[in-house]
């Protein structure tokens, strides 16, 4: 991993590694390994304090231009940072949506006023964001959203419902795709609004998942208001901007994610040694295939970094989402097979899951959230391979 890096990137890796080793100690030593998919409930205040500590030292939004609070780090350096962060077993980030989704979108499409208002609190981790895309009747089919917004003088008034909204309870703001042109359908007539969550017109209701936790939420907008200037792009450009946001989501952070996957895979291998499952040739073959799949995943993600260098990643980023989602779901199934019958019993009552049970249950959602497998395959077929579009009503 480090052998082919340029000397400047090796020096940057050493700087990141030394800083994390020094600061993930003392008051923050207990934060190592906390949080993550299916465990977002863990020590949220401590993780927020850690990330604000990072911000004070200049380690948030490092890929952003220096004029907006970043370090202007290259894509290679951003990859290094995410890898080292994962290798240090640092706590799961609480500001991921603001830093990696909304922030780059504002940088690419926002006005000077929006950049001045919204970027500094993201850099400082003083305002947290959630994403208002999916709806009960428009999950992966984002073009089917029905949440509507009407311009009333100097404010947009928003009514509708969003679902599967990650971290909505902790968030201060939500970027929302909604319909602003009455009578419009599908991709037309959508706009991208920035809506404050702390108001009477917004109601957040947690959804209890199979893991027993509530990372996802329902969000109801009932006369919610936001300033007229809190629209990114022009009215009707919401589809284009929403797709760009999804592209940013599949950027350099995925390589850090894969370091976590590698740690999980090693944990399953160690588990197979302890349980004797490694003696089973079929399970041994599946573990080998999982290792090969992880190498393929990394090479594919590295290849798509060219899209990041050019700006927003293109539709090819759907390949990465499809690959890692299926690999991770399969790893959860493999972990349960390695556990055997013991995997059917909770560690304690009433519903105390171990890490492998939680991995199995939460990874079922990997192939659904952030665009289901079916949607990713359509994008790849139509926009990468140039195949005929699927018939739509």
What attributes does this structure have?
Butyryl-CoA Dehydrogenase, subunit A, domain 2, four-stranded antiparallel beta sheet, four-stranded mixed beta sheet, 3 domains, alpha+beta, Butyryl-Coa Dehydrogenase, subunit A, domain 1, 393 residues, Butyryl-CoA Dehydrogenase, subunit A, domain 3, 45% helix
Net shape? globular
Reported for the largest beta sheet, the result is: 4 strands, mixed
CATH superfamily of the largest domain: Butyryl-CoA Dehydrogenase, subunit A, domain 3
What strand line-up does the widest sheet have? 1-4-5-8
CATH architectural type of the largest domain: Up-down Bundle
Domain Acyl-CoA dehydrogenase/oxidase N-terminal: 9-124
Pfam family, one: Acyl-CoA_dh_1
Domain Acyl-CoA oxidase/dehydrogenase middle: 130-222
Organism: Actinomadura parmotrematis
How would you explain this protein's 3D organization?
The structure is a single chain. The protein is of the alpha+beta class and 393 residues long. The chain folds into three domains: 7-94, Orthogonal Bundle (Butyryl-Coa Dehydrogenase, subunit A, domain 1), CATH 1.10.540.10; 129-236, Butyryl-CoA Dehydrogenase, subunit A, domain 2, CATH 2.40.110.10; 250-384, Butyryl-CoA Dehydrogenase, subunit A, domain 3, CATH 1.20.140. The chain has eleven helices and eight strands. It has helices at residues 7-23, 44-56, 75-87, 96-109, 112-123, 238-249, 253-275, 281-309, 317-339, 355-362, 373-384; strands at residues 129-132, 148-152, 155-162, 173-179, 190-196, 202-206, 217-227, 231-232. The strands form two sheets. The protein has a four-stranded mixed beta sheet with strand order 1-4-5-8. A four-stranded antiparallel beta sheet has the order 2-3-7-6, with no helix packed on it. The longest helix has 29 residues, at 281-309. The N and C termini lie far apart (48 Å). InterPro entries: Acyl-CoA_Oxase/DH_mid-dom, Acyl-CoA_Oxase/DH_mid-dom_sf, AcylCo_DH-like_C, AcylCo_DH/oxidase_C, AcylCoA_DH/ox_N, AcylCoA_DH/ox_N_sf, AcylCoA_DH/oxidase_NM_dom_sf, Mycobact_Acyl-CoA_DH. Residues 236-385 form the Acyl-CoA dehydrogenase/oxidase C-terminal domain. It comes from Actinomadura parmotrematis. This is Acyl-CoA dehydrogenase family protein.
């Amino acid at each position: 991993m480090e052998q082919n890096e340029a000397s400047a990137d090796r020096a940057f890796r050493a700087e990141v590694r030394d800083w994390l080793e020094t600061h993930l100690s003392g008051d923050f030593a207990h934060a190592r390994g906390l949080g993550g998919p299916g465990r977002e409930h863990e020590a949220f205040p401590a993780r927020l304090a850690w990330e604000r500590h990072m911000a004070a030292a200049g380690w948030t939004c490092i890929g952003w231009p220096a004029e907006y609070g970043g370090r202007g780090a290259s894509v290679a350096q951003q990859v290094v940072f995410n890898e080292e962060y994962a290798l240090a077993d640092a706590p799961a980030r609480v500001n991921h949506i603001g830093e990696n989704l909304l922030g780059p979108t504002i940088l690419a499409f926002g006005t000077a006023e929006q950049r001045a208002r919204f970027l500094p609190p993201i850099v400082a981790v003083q305002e947290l964001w959630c994403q208002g895309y999916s709806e009960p009747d428009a999950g992966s089919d984002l073009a089917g959203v029905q949440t509507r917004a009407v311009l009333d003088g100097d404010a947009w008034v928003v009514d509708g419902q969003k679902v599967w909204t990650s971290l909505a309870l902790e968030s201060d703001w939500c970027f929302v795709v909604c319909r602003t042109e009455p009578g419009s359908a599908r991709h037309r007539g959508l706009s991208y609004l920035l809506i404050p969550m702390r108001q009477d017109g917004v109601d957040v209701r947690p959804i209890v998942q199979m893991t027993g936790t509530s990372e996802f939420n329902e969000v109801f907008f009932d006369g919610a208001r936001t300033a007229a200037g809190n629209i990114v792009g022009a009215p009707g450009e919401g589809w284009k901007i929403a797709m760009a946001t999804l592209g940013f989501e599949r950027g350099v952070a995925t390589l850090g994610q894969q370091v976590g996957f590698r740690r999980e895979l090693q944990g399953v291998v160690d588990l197979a040694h302890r349980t004797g499952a490694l003696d089973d040739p079929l399970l041994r073959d599946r573990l080998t295939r999982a290792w090969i799949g992880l190498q393929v995943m990394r090479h594919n993600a590295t290849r798509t970094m060219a899209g990041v260098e050019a700006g927003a990643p293109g539709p090819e980023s759907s390949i990465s989402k499809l690959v890692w989602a299926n690999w991770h779901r399969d790893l959860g199934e493999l972990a349960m097979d390695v556990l055997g019958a013991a995997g059917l019993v909770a560690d304690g009552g009433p519903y105390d899951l171990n890490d492998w049970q939680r991995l199995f249950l939460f990874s079922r959602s990997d192939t659904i959230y952030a665009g289901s497998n079916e949607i990713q395959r359509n994008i790849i077929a139509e926009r990468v391979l140039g195949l005929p579009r699927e018939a739509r009503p």
